[in-house]
Structures are given as structure tokens and as C-alpha cells.
Design goal:
The structure holds 2 protein chains of 2 kinds. Chain A has helices at about 40-50, 70-75, 90-100, 110-115, 130-145, 160-175, 215-220, 230-235, 255-260, 270-285, and strands spanning about 5-15, 15-25, 30-35, 55-60, 75-80, 150-155, 180-185, 200-205, 205-210, 220-225, 240-245, 245-255, 265. Chain A is of the alpha/beta class. By secondary structure, chain B is mostly helical. The chains are: A alpha/beta, B mainly alpha. The interface between A and B is large, with 39 and 41 residues.
Chain lengths: ~290, ~325
């Protein structure tokens, strides 16, 4: 059974099409990065997966219909979003008590263990914590839940670099165990490149690109082309070319590495570069 | 795995079994979280109790000073009136603040979580919208009556203790007080009244809960204005008053529905005396003494208005569940 399976998933708000009928399949144990510009439909897709909005088309999450079976689904799905704010009036101890009281898969000792590594005090109210500490608290709660699917929607928005790095490191080291599935959206794509197993670009409600990270590395090559090889490199039809310090950097899709080796310095592109190359064209931004 | 509160924390289950859900208590914890969030639920009744107590102590001493004069003009029948009056005032004050707190609580119940955007956090947990809405309705229908009852009982007992001490200090008869003050009966009546009023007002609470889940801003105005508009429109368009009567019946009909007409102890003697001295207290011709014989449970349960109100309340709550599912953070 796939963790998430969608066919023709579609969502409109009035005349605005947020999701234009996407097909999606996420297998168990994957870490999928859902990347797209603002308003691309990422959050809508996640909200549909979490049963927070109704939708058209077929969607199964862990074999369930998220809209009609949300309560049951939420036992196996966890979710951290920049917009899902912890209640500001609540004390840390109350948050832990409450989650322990309502969540059948919550391991209190585990959560306390994570919290002990932070400077968060149990008597503090959420509104007294810094944004980074709130994220730590939320992560401690989520990691103590034995969920099958974790959805992260801009989880590190507004956090400083140290908190962001710690967030993903903790997630990868202490949580991910290859049976869980994680879906993450973020604008800070560089920071999650090394943790992803799968990549999906979404733009204007459509999936523009979907591939595993192994495919990504095999398929895309970036070459810092030596000046004398520029014509030869262009003949291989790069999908994108940009100038950095007067050196041409070209991005190739599906060109074998041995064809490129002589042309200049070869490396695997960053997701951000590929994102700009694919999205820049459709967005009308000079790439 | 060491656990500090064993009742609430289930063992971590490796496999997916629905049986684990039974070890959690979403409703219980949802009610607890409401009480955590809204401290005013018990602080406001306690504060009013404090005020009443303060006023009681002040008035008690001034009353005690004049008791000899009053006694001289009183008939034996009206004796209990002076004794009972402060206890009645205390009970009515705490009940009134309980209703007010309940109404304001309901207006915020499904609105505040959207405004502070914590609704997505609550929705990320396996607690159904039905459980959430019922836990919120549970506050004015069950929790507040219990608080009102408990606060009143404690207040009455403290008043009684002060009363006894003051009487002993001034050499007055404690027996007079104890024989005229049916304190135990009063508390039973309180308990019955608190719950009867809550049930009677249930459609108002439920309407406010629905509005708090529906309104995108100003739930207070949305709660108040449509009923007012209805009354006005009906009056202007048809010249009738059905809506207005229905609403005032609902707002003010609780006592009539739940109790048979209480005995009014004449206090005209006291009344005249007080008026002479302070120039206030007009329009009061008696002190209602609620005894057990005034509890009209059969009459209350056979009032169609009670059941009609409860049906309306259930409909509003069902609509509130639907709204909570549909509405997003503001």
C-alpha cells in the first residue's frame, strides 16, 4: 500500500484553480520534498492530504479517505506547519499533558527526553517562548508520536539558521527510520536537499517534475564550462545557462556524464538551481 | 518507559490497532483544556462571591445595629425575611455571573482558536470536531452549574459562619438565625436551579457557540444583532411580537419553568425601615424563600419549552460541528 495515492486531485477556490487534477504516489519510507513557488498549490495539496479541506478526485492516505476519515487518520499522521500555531496561552506541561491525553501513539517519556535537551521550562507559557523554542517544542511532541506519515509545511519558517539545521538534523537522526514517510515543503531547499529521497516540483496546481533523488543525480548535471568549450557545450542543449563570475554554468538534463567531462568542472546541481531553471522559464523570470 | 501519569499515557504500540484509542480520553482532556484556557470560568464567580461577602459584612453590621428596632416592628411571620435576604442576594449574584461568563465563553469557544490560529494544531490531533464541540458545550451546561453551585455553597457557609460569630459577639440569638434559615434546603434548590437554568438557556449557549464557529469577525455582534433584527423586522413588517416574546421567554422564563411560585415573605416592615434610613430598595415587596417544595421537577420536565429549546440547541451544535470542519484559521 502506498502511503499517499492521488488520482486527479483537484481543488478550486471560486474561479481560482489551486490544484488542477494531480496524480501523486508516495511510497512508504520516503522523504518527499514538495517544492514550488508561492501559490503553487503546495499547502492546498497538504491540506487535502490532512483532511482539512474537501477536494475533487481520488485521494487515499494510508488507505483512508482523509476528508471523511480524518479523526482515524490523525492517529497515524502528524503535522507541523508554520500556520499551525501552538496555543499561546498554554503552558508547556499542559501541552504535553493534553497530547498524552488524546493521542494513543504518544510516548510521553520520549517527549520529555527531547524537551530535556532544550532550555524550555515546563512552567512557561507558549507565548513566553521564542519562535525557535516553540518549533523545538512542536518537534518534540511530533517526534514522540509513533506516526506513519509526517507532514511538514514550512516547518522552519522564521527560524534562524542554527534552529533550522538542528530541526532537520534531529528529524533525520532521531525520528526517520525508513518505515515512516515524510512530506516536506519549504523555500529553503538547499537545507533539505541531503535528506530527501524524492523530489516533486509543483507550479500553478500542476506537477512539473517528479523524480527520486537517485534519478535526480543521474539525470541532471551541472557544468562550469571552460570558455573554449562553450559552443560544444551549447550543442548538447543545456536546459539552462547562467553566468557566474564570467563563467558559463550550464544545466543538462539526461546528458551522459562522459559526454560532459571534457567541457569543464562537473557537479550535481542543487535543487535550487534546477528549481530556478524549470520554474524561472514558466514564471517569466530571467534565469 | 517511566511515566508520571499512568492513566493518560498509553503504551507505545508498534502495530496499528484501533484498540489503543480506548486508552485515551479525548473528551475529558478537551474539557480540561477549556478550563485551562478560560480561567474566568471560576475566577469570575469567585470574585463576585468575594464582593458579595464584602457587602454582606458591611451591611450585616449596619443591619445588626438596627435589629432591635426592626424586631420591635416585625410580625413573627416576617422574621425569616431579614435572615434570608442576604443569602438570596448571594445566590442570585453568583448565578447571574455564571450565566454571563457562560455566554461570553460560548462567543469565544470556536472563534479564539481560529483567531490565534491554533485550530490547525488542535486539528492535527486525533480529536473529532464532534468531541471538540461537545466539550465546549459541556462547559456552560455542566461545568459552570457545578462551579456556580460549589461557589454558592461555600459562600453561604462562610456567610453563615460570620453571621453566627457576629450574633454571638453582639449577644443575639443564634437559634433565631438557624431556625429561620433553611440552609440545607437552599443548597439543594441551588443545585437543581443551576442545572435547570443551564438546560433552559441551552439554545442560547448553542446559538453563541455556532456563531463563534461561523463569524469571521465580531462574534459578539453576530450573536446579538440577528435576533434583535428579527424582532425589529417582525414588528415593522407584520406588527407582531412573536420573536420578541420567544426571546424574552427564553431569557427570563427559567424561574417560572423550573419552580412553582415561591412563598414571598413580607418584608414591608423592613422595607419601610430601610427606606427611611437609606432611601433605596423601592419596589421590593417580599423575599422569595426557595424551599424544597418549590422545586417543580415534574412541571419543568413537562414544559414543552424546555424540550423545544433542547432540540434547537442540538441543531445549533450540529451546525457548529459542521462549521468547525469547514472553517479555517482567520
Amino acid at each position: 500500500m502506498s502511503c499517499i495515492e492521488a488520482h486527479g486531485l483537484r481543488k478550486t477556490f471560486g474561479t481560482t484553480v489551486a490544484l488542477a487534477g494531480i496524480d501523486l504516489k508516495v511510497e512508504e519510507g520516503r522523504i518527499l520534498g514538495l517544492i514550488g513557488p508561492n501559490g503553487a498549490g503546495k499547502s492546498t495539496a497538504l491540506n487535502a492530504i490532512l483532511g482539512l479541506v474537501p477536494y475533487e478526485g481520488q485521494l487515499k492516505v494510508l488507505g483512508r479517505n482523509p476528508w471523511t476519515e480524518r479523526d482515524a487518520l490523525m492517529r497515524d499522521v502528524c503535522f507541523v506547519a508554520d500556520v499551525a500555531v501552538l496555543p499561546r496561552w498554554m503552558r508547556v506541561s499542559q501541552v504535553v499533558d493534553y497530547v498524552a491525553g488524546v493521542h494513543p501513539r504518544f510516548d510521553r517519556a520520549k517527549a520529555e527526553g527531547f524537551l530535556a535537551k532544550t532550555t524550555i521550562r515546563h512552567t512557561s507559557r507558549v507565548r513566553e517562548l521564542s519562535k525557535g523554542m516553540v518549533a523545538q517544542l512542536h518537534l518534540a511532541l511530533v517526534m514522540a508520536i509513533d506516526a506513519k506519515l509526517l507532514v511538514l509545511d514550512e516547518p522552519t519558517l522564521g527560524l534562524d539558521l542554527l534552529y533550522r539545521k538542528q530541526f532537520y538534523d534531529t528529524l533525520l537522526n532521531d525520528y526517520f527510520d525508513h518505515t515512516r514517510t515524510i512530506v516536506v515543503t519549504t523555500h529553503q531547499v538547499e537545507e533539505i536537499q541531503h535528506i530527501l529521497t524524492d523530489l516533486m516540483f509543483i507550479d500553478r496546481g500542476r506537477i512539473v517534475l517528479t523524480c527520486s533523488m537517485e534519478d535526480f543525480e543521474a539525470r541532471y548535471t551541472e557544468v562550469m564550462v571552460n570558455p573554449e568549450n562553450i559552443a560544444a557545450a551549447r550543442a548538447l542543449k543545456p536546459i539552462n545557462e547562467r553566468q557566474v563570475f564570467n563563467r558559463a554554468i550550464m544545466l543538462f538534463d539526461g546528458v551522459k556524464r562522459d559526454q560532459l567531462t571534457g567541457l569543464g568542472e562537473i557537479r550535481t546541481p542543487s535543487i535550487a538551481d534546477l528549481f530556478v531553471a524549470t520554474m524561472g522559464a514558466t514564471q517569466g523570470i530571467a534565469a | 518507559m517511566s511515566m508520571s501519569s499512568s492513566d493518560a499515557v498509553p503504551e507505545t504500540m508498534p502495530a496499528a490497532t484501533t484498540a489503543t484509542a480506548s486508552s485515551t480520553r479525548p473528551f475529558f482532556w478537551s474539557v480540561r483544556r477549556e478550563i485551562w484556557e478560560y480561567g474566568s470560568l471560576y475566577i469570575a464567580p469567585l470574585a463576585v462571591a468575594g464582593l458579595v461577602l464584602f457587602g454582606f459584612v458591611i451591611s450585616f453590621f449596619s443591619m445588626a445595629r438596627h435589629e432591635q428596632e426592626i424586631r420591635a416592628t416585625l410580625t413573627p411571620n416576617s422574621m425569616p425575611a431579614i435572615m434570608v435576604l442576604p443569602y438570596d442576594i448571594a445566590a442570585v449574584s453568583v448565578i447571574a455571573v455564571g450565566v454571563i461568563v457562560g455566554l461570553f465563553y460560548c462567543l469565544g469557544a470556536l472563534y479564539n482558536e481560529r483567531r490565534e490560529r491554533s485550530i490547525l494544531f488542535w486539528k492535527s490531533l486525533p480529536v473529532s470536531n464532534l468531541t471538540t464541540v461537545l466539550s465546549k458545550a459541556f462547559i456552560p451546561l455542566v461545568v459552570l452549574p457545578i462551579i456556580v453551585f460549589a461557589v454558592t455553597v461555600v459562600l453561604h457557609l462562610v456567610m453563615l459562619a460570620l453571621n453566627i460569630v457576629a450574633r454571638m459577639a453582639s449577644g443575639m440569638s443564634v437559634n433565631d438565625l438557624l431556625s429561620n434559615l433553611p440552609i440545607f434546603q437552599m443548597e439543594i434548590v441551588m443545585l437543581y436551579g443551576a442545572f435547570a437554568f443551564a438546560l433552559w438557556h441551552a439554545p442560547i449557549y448553542a446559538w453563541f457557540i455556532f456563531v463563534s464557529g461561523w463569524a469571521k469577525k465580531a462574534p459578539f455582534l453576530w450573536g446579538i444583532l440577528p435576533p434583535l433584527a428579527l424582532v425589529l423586522v417582525e414588528r415593522l413588517a407584520f406588527g407582531t411580537h412573536y420573536a420578541g416574546r420567544l426571546i424574552s421567554y427564553r431569557l427570563g422564563g427559567a424561574v417560572d419553568a423550573a419552580f412553582s411560585r415561591p412563598t414571598m415573605l413580607p418584608i414591608h416592615v423592613l422595607h419601610e425601615h430601610v427606606t427611611q434610613n437609606h432611601g433605596t430598595r423601592h419596589g421590593m415587596d417580599g423575599v422569595p424563600v426557595f424551599g424544597l417544595q418549590q422545586i417543580d421537577l415534574a412541571g419543568f420536565l413537562s414544559t414543552p419549552g424546555l424540550w423545544a429549546g433542547l432540540v434547537v440547541a442540538a441543531a445549533f451544535l450540529a451546525a457548529a460541528v459542521w462549521m468547525r470542519r469547514k472553517r479555517e484559521a482567520l
